[in-house]
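Here is the promised in-class demo. Please do not try to memorize the tokens; focus on the logic of going from shape to residues.
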């Protein structure tokens, strides 16, 4: 349901284009992990809308606090999405739930950076350091990782609360360009979690560079 809502509402706020390194039927093998860069509160909707256009509707690993938002929380629960309790003894339960979903052939979307960047500008920048959860999940399940890069979300909303509200309010008038690029699946291998984690970040960064270049972003090759 969230993917359908995102796909229907997004055209109000921006112009989305999508590209892929490979055929979507090949990229989204059942039981795959989708790893995307995280730059704005708007980008989950952008990524979900893009993936739906490619025939993929994943469950999302997201901050547990979202389940406390009345309407959104019910939608997340009904859709089988996975709450992540950061810094809590329940944190490991999210990986258990994700592994179960992958075992049932679901796609699982994860934001391995673990949070939003703290800067307030709208410019593009390379993904920040990844946490180890993605690598551990891939090692545990053997699932391929589909790297996804999105660019333009910060044109809708970024910065402090006032700027974010202003961005959302004016986006229907501005309708900024947005782009999502889906890279070819990768298998994470290596001697330790750090090496596997860095391989994942490199793949997502490559997808992000492609997305940013499609928008002619001057910072597309930074980082």
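The designed amino acids, position by position:
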């Amino acid at each position: 349901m969230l993917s359908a809502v995102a796909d229907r509402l997004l055209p109000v706020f921006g112009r989305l284009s999508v590209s892929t390194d490979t055929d979507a039927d090949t990229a989204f093998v059942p039981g795959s992990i989708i790893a995307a860069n995280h730059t704005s509160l708007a980008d989950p909707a952008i990524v979900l809308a893009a993936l739906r256009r490619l025939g993929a509707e994943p469950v999302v690993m997201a901050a547990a606090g979202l389940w406390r938002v009345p309407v959104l929380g019910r939608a997340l629960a009904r859709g089988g999405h996975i709450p992540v309790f950061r810094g809590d003894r329940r944190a490991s339960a999210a990986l258990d739930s994700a592994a179960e979903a992958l075992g049932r052939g679901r796609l699982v979307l994860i934001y391995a950076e673990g949070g939003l960047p703290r800067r307030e500008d709208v410019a593009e920048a390379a993904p920040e350091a990844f946490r180890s959860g993605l690598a551990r999940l891939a090692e545990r399940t053997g699932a391929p990782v589909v790297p996804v890069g999105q660019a333009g979300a910060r044109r809708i909303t970024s910065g402090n609360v006032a700027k974010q509200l202003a961005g959302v309010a004016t986006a229907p008038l501005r309708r900024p360009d947005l782009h999502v690029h889906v890279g070819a699946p990768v298998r994470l291998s290596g001697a330790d979690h750090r090496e596997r984690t860095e391989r994942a970040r490199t793949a997502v960064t490559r997808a992000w560079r492609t997305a940013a270049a499609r928008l002619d972003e001057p910072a597309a090759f930074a980082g």
